[in-house]
Design brief:
Belongs to the short-chain dehydrogenases/reductases (SDR) family. Helix content is about 50%, strand content about 15%. It has about 290 residues and is an alpha/beta fold. The termini are far apart. It binds nicotinamide-adenine-dinucleotide (NAD).
Length: about 290
């Protein structure tokens, strides 16, 4: 829970002016953006995209080294200030401490990106209660903690804001290979929609981002190498053939995240595979 990463700031603090050059600089320049799971993959790419827009970035990850690296690079890319915070998002007390620290030292977060997540494959009967707990603790509770703590600060400040939750196409695409993961993401999707209804009157938007397969550590490491790994591999290959989505870059997901905030989109299927699955699902927009 410690802030071992320490702050990585742009030198002496003074009035914050936008240094952003990205296409969203006007929208996000000088804003405070907190991204969880910012040490890798989609979270890191998102931190960079906000940095490019001149936002002040809080990079949160349970891995100190990678969060620190993200903050350093965010500064180089254009963030006037960037900090690394080492926190496990599933730890409610650590998240409370983080929320208090951020509000006290950096300010009220304008954009919160609850992105930290872990993968887990395995058939339903091969998924142990411990597995279920682990996945739900990070993927669902991490998002609940973030929304409760930072959403409350946004609401109390009364100047609007935006919350982005990284769900997944798995949220509307049943899979024998990923029951726990898919359930956690379906819950994140519904939570996002409920919270969107709750906060809409206060100028606070909530978006659920639903990528299909993206080229990050989560898809290339042991996370998804459970008992049904072979089947999952086959499914991924099929998808790749169908949609040509091999190597979908996290940067494109980051771009979709910034766009979702700008356009205040509720549910955003990102990859071609995810858009197809969304249209075929019961969550498809009605004509
Ligand atoms: P990744 O493994 O590259 O990055 C995840 C980051 O989150 C890592 O830096 C990790 O240290 C951090 N993290 C994990 N558990 C944490 C915790 N308890 N507290 C704090 N940090 C934690 O994976 P990614 O693909 O970038 O995943 C980001 C999000 O996108 C996840 O929620 C994932 O479920 C979702 N997603 C990914 C894909 C995909 O194909 N890559 C598809 C749909 C959704």
């Amino acid at each position: 829970t410690a802030n071992e990463g320490g702050p990585v700031t742009a030198g002496e603090s003074g009035p914050v002016t936008s240094t952003g050059t990205g296409k969203y600089a006007e929208r996000f320049g000088g804003q405070l953006v907190l991204v969880t799971g910012a040490g890798s993959g989609i979270g890191r790419a998102t931190a960079f995209a906000f940095a490019e827009a001149g936002a002040r970035v809080v990079a949160v990850d349970r891995d100190t080294e990678s969060a620190t690296r993200t903050a350093e690079l965010a500064r180089l890319i254009g963030a006037p200030e960037a900090w690394a915070e080492t926190v496990d998002v599933s730890d409610g007390q650590a998240m409370e401490k983080l929320a208090a620290k951020v509000a006290g030292e950096y300010g009220v977060v304008d954009v919160l990106v609850n992105n930290a997540g872990i993968g887990l494959s395995g058939s339903f009967f091969d998924t142990t209660p411990e597995d279920w707990k682990k996945v739900l603790d990070v993927n669902l509770w991490g998002v609940i903690h973030g929304c409760r703590l930072f959403g409350k600060q946004m609401a109390e400040r009364g100047q609007g804001g935006h919350i982005v939750n990284t769900a997944s196409a798995a949220a509307f695409q049943p899979s024998k290979a990923l029951p726990a993961y898919s359930t956690s993401k379906a819950a994140v999707l519904m939570l996002s929609e409920c919270l969107r209804a709750e906060l809409s009157g206060q100028g606070i938007g909530v978006s659920a981002i639903c990528p299909g397969l993206v080229n990050t550590n989560i898809t290339s490491t042991a996370h998804f190498a459970g008992v049904d790994a072979a089947e999952e591999k086959r499914r991924q290959k099929r998808s790749a053939r169908l949609y040509g989505l091999r190597n979908y870059p996290p940067e494109k997901v980051a771009d979709a995240i910034l766009r979702a905030v700008v356009r205040d989109q509720a549910v955003v299927p990102v990859t071609p595979e995810a858009r197809g699955a969304h249209l075929l699902s019961r969550f498809a927009p009605r004509a």
